[in-house]
């Protein structure tokens, strides 16, 4: 069963509603036992980086989640701030990130190509696929997703970049390494495109 991690932040009900419409079993991970029974994990996130990291580190779930993803190879996807938490660090805060996909979260305002644009980056934007990946299968080139953010992920390894989007410059908006994924936009708010992505994630099996 897909479990959405409840660590005190994120729109959990929206994901449950999508999976209910898709006919895919899902639930909330409140406890270590919930983590142990998950076949897939979703790390949601909204708000500020340090707040999200503090809540996650204090949840008592991190050790169990890391065991499931690194030892049992359970697929996990971080969404919005949940994606940014996968990084090593963020310009938004002072706390270290999870470091599961090495990289740095940068401010659009610190990039000369985007600093004059309205902040946050809000609204619909297209993804530019860089590699064929099960997470993005069955997408048309014009598929659009809903974004709401002022910071973006910059992967250390270009091989971890699955798709980019453009806002003043091309930024990494879908990333993946082994069974760990991240997406900056909000699939739960992105209508048919978002439903397809969440369905694709539910079908991913990682056996390496």
Automatic annotation (TrEMBL):
Q: What is this protein called?
A: Imidazole glycerol phosphate synthase subunit HisH
Q: In which pathway does it act?
A: Amino-acid biosynthesis; L-histidine biosynthesis; L-histidine from 5-phospho-alpha-D-ribose 1-diphosphate: step 5/9
One GO biological process term is: L-histidine biosynthetic process
Q: Which HAMAP family match?
A: HisH (MF_00278)
The record's note on quaternary structure and interaction partners says: Heterodimer of HisH and HisF.
Q: Where in or outside the cell? A: Cytoplasm
Known catalysed reaction(s)?
Answer: 5-[(5-phospho-1-deoxy-D-ribulos-1-ylimino)methylamino]-1-(5-phospho-beta-D-ribosyl)imidazole-4-carboxamide + L-glutamine = D-erythro-1-(imidazol-4-yl)glycerol 3-phosphate + 5-amino-1-(5-phospho-beta-D-ribosyl)imidazole-4-carboxamide + L-glutamate + H(+); L-glutamine + H2O = L-glutamate + NH4(+)
Which Pfam families does its entry note?
Answer: GATase
**What is the species listed in this Swiss-Prot or TrEMBL entry?**
Escherichia coli
